[in-house]
């Protein structure tokens, strides 16, 4: 399996985030991607190459063009306002306030285009976001070209990014862009299988009314976990997408046995949908040692997860999302990919 990786992610560093009661250094660090890259190399998974450059036309089909444009302009606007340190929003629109008019200054715009204070901006953020998008599309091209599987080692991640907002460390929804790229290259049906600990709210919302892209999430119950406001079991899709969205929320403390029961339900739904290709939103924040998460999967479980995904018998694109236990992240990701490939 080939891996696509860009060193340009590293400029997205020194970020902070708002956690309950405190602004802290972001858990989403450059070291994450560097350790995953090293483990993939050590595991002998296959060649590691840099991405080709792709234009943003697919991203602008799924995201609002004004939002993508904003991402590229944040740092300049923040600097022009005389700020130093990472750009972070402090106010957000919500029902009862005008959600349709982008304000004219950077503080209003940051809130207008964000769901939380968990996707901050530094000087290198836009270049890293664009490189992550290019990694996803380049790896998708390998699978579209006939490879059984490929690994998009994306950083920053994408699955919380919605049509018109950043959040949860995410800016452009890399997995959604990759899924759409398969459709545009002629795949009739695509499944996004999201195994990150957190619900992939952005991906779900982008495809919610579409019957050509199935979205399946196995995640911590939003009643007790971020992103709180999407990811319930009764969200089944709408319109042409009725029945093409599946949420399998699980409680805090979930172990691999419980996770696997949910996965069996997911695999049955995917087989019934019969996609041409699967995009896996790959988070390993389900690990018991994850500093911001509450599942109990162990390192030995990830190769089994990979084997279960291989058993779908479909062309597969892995797109890196979350996972914050940096000391274990490389082994967990490489183990999953080896479990798939072996
Ligand atoms: C891509 C991805 O995995 N994004 C995750 C973003 C999660 N951000 C909010 C985490 C809130 C965790 N709450 C911890 C409670 C402290 N004990
Ligand atoms: Zn996550």
Automatic annotation (TrEMBL):
This is Acetoin utilization deacetylase AcuC-like enzyme. Gene3D superfamilies: Histone deacetylase domain. It holds the Pfam family Hist_deacetyl. Belongs to the histone deacetylase family. Keywords: Hydrolase, Metal-binding, Zinc. It comes from Amaricoccus macauensis. The keyword Cell wall biogenesis/degradation does not apply. Its cofactor is Zn(2+). It comes from the Bacteria. InterPro entries: HDACs, His_deacetylse_dom, His_deacetylse_dom_sf, Ureohydrolase_dom_sf. Residues 29-337 form the Histone deacetylase domain. GO terms for molecular function: histone deacetylase activity; hydrolase activity; metal ion binding.
């Amino acid at each position: 399996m080939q891996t696509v990786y860009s060193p340009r992610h590293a400029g997205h560093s020194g970020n902070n985030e708002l956690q309950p009661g405190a602004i802290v250094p972001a858990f989403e660090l450059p070291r994450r991607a560097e350790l995953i890259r090293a483990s993939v190399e050590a595991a002998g998974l296959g060649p590691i190459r840099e991405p080709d450059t792709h234009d943003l036309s697919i991203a602008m089909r799924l995201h609002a063009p004004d939002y993508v444009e904003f991402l590229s302009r944040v740092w300049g606007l923040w600097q022009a306002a005389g700020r130093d340190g990472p750009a972070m929003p402090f106010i957000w629109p919500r029902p009862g306030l005008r959600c349709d008019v982008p304000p004219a200054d950077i503080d209003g715009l940051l809130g207008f285009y964000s769901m939380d204070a968990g996707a901050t901006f530094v000087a290198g953020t836009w270049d890293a976001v664009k490189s992550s998008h290019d990694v996803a599309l380049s790896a998708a091209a390998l699978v579209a070209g006939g490879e059984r599987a490929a690994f998009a080692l994306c950083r920053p991640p994408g699955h919380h990014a919605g049509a018109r907002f950043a959040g949860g460390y995410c800016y452009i929804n890399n997995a959604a862009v990759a899924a759409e790229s398969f459709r545009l290259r002629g795949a009739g049906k695509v499944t996004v299988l999201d195994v990150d600990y957190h619900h992939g709210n952005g991906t779900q919302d982008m495809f919610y009314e579409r019957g050509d892209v199935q979205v399946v999430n196995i995640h911590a119950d939003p009643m007790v976990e971020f992103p709180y406001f999407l990811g319930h079991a009764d969200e089944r899709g709408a319109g042409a997408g009725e029945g093409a969205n599946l949420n399998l929320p699980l409680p805090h403390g979930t172990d691999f046995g419980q996770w696997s029961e949910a996965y069996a339900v997911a695999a049955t739904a995917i087989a019934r949908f019969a996609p041409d290709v699967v995009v896996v939103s790959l988070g390993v924040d389900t690990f018991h040692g994850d500093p911001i998460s509450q599942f109990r999967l162990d390192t030995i479980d990830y190769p089994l997860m990979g084997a279960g995904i291989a058993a779908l018998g479909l062309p597969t694109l892995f797109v890196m999302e979350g996972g914050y236990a940096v000391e274990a992240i490389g082994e967990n990701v490489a183990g999953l990919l080896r479990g798939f490939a072996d």
